[in-house]
Amino acid sequence: MDCKKIAQLLYPDVTETPEDIFKRYPRRQLKEGQVVTRFAPSPTGLMHIGNFFQAFISYNLAKNSNGILFLRIEDTDEKRKVKEAKAVIYDVLERFGIKFDEYQTLDGKDIGDYGPYVQSQRERIYKVFAKKLVEEGKAFPCFCKKTEGKEDVLKLRETKFYEDDEKEYDPCRDLSYEEVKKHIDNGESFAIRLKTKNTGKERIKFYDLIKGELEAKANAKDFVLVKSDGIPPYAFAHAIDDTLMGTTVAVRGEEYISSTPAHLELFEALSFTPIKYCHNPLICKMDENGNRRKISKRYDPEANMMYYFEKGYPVDSVLEYLLNMINSGFEIWRKNNPDKPWQEFKFGINDITAVAPLFDMVKLNDISKNVIARQSGEELFANWLVWAKEYDAPLAEILEKDKDKFTKVCAMDRDGATKPRKDIYNYSMMKDNFDYIFSRPTSYELDSADTAKANEFLSEYLKTFAMPPNNEEWFEGVKALAEKLGYAIDNKLYKQNPDAYKGNTAKACEFIRVAITGHKNSPTLFTIMQILGEDEVKTRLSHKF
Ligand code: GLU
After folding, report:
1. Ligand 1 centroid distance, CA of 73 (Å)
2. Is the pLDDT of residue 329 over 80?
């Protein structure tokens, strides 16, 4: 009886009941197999790859089941609230094309019937359930201050409540109505704690959709449901929200497994059907000593999703790489379906890896090379320009001034090529990759032993040089001169007796290539020469090594 009176004392203004609230959040009418899932980030100022990983898994689960994906901003932790942090979340999600069926717009408009989709706007709802739990004696007000009397509280806990180390009962759990009233009359603020029904001896089994059945010690702590500022921490808020919002599967990080027993006790106290959790493994990195560690925003720039935009990775490269981490079957699928969009790769909950994936930049770059190889010259140019406009304004200006030229540059060994070059994995590397287009080489990848030969060949080549009409004729011209100067044009003969020649045709081409581009490797030289124009090519060929 006193519980009811205490509840009324704590929440005199709360007149609604959980039933009233449930009326406003009717059960979703779902078809068999439809998944309702969500992404529930806390605005911290950056989007960590681990969080984005969850968003992407949830996105796919909803998409692959024709289900529903909603975005819920979990901003109840005031200390972690960062100005503009919400905008960062929206920005990253939008850039990656993660679309939600239900969410709140940045200017506060709820799209969907289960809002508000921002936790700080749901305080009234949480209070209704907190009041109910207090009424039922399943929760109680706690007046202990964090700062004062801490030793007393600990002592009290030890003597009065602690029979052993197994449980953590709070000293306020059995306050009488009169005691509560005294605190309230004093104007003291209060937190609400769960009155755990466990003693610390119990164990519970629960099911995780990725890891299967798990067993752990049941919760035996009177943990906080609502803080003294009236705001509920994660445990209470998510239990209520996921229930009201009709979540069928909650994808969250593995770090929540240890608190799942507490969450399940809370669901039971609230008389809610427990939610189905899918704890995804955390993305790891290998440290210098060969040990796995969690990828961290402190040490790993790639832990921040903005990194990929700054470096100019195509969105599809990053998403394909994540798919690869989620399910190793993706790689085989991609091999068998080189031209299909990744969206056609379907996976379900059972296909999600249970093993912590290892972040591997080389693998990402490999995937990205293939993604970029699928772009046409025009597409690549457009993407490069978009990137430059955001991250390298002077470059963007150059690209825009000479659109045709740079589109041709992007199309080299790409448009119409049976095997497009796979040397670019992000847009920020393109300027270096094509440095010879922007300016004459300042360094040359020529073996020093070749200097004299290269100078001789090039000065002869320059004497009669005129821009050839096509690649074949260009090559024929090089071959003819090479032969005249004592180079083998038949590679077989050359290999049988290399000392009889100055080199082979490939060597002769290398001299021209290095003179023009500075590099031993480049796209088709003839195309580069066409882009640079005859005069420029002549100037470069006249270089003395
Ligand atoms: N706000 C929590 C986080 O960012 C969400 C956990 C969950 O998805 O339930 O870790």
Report:
1. 9
2. yes
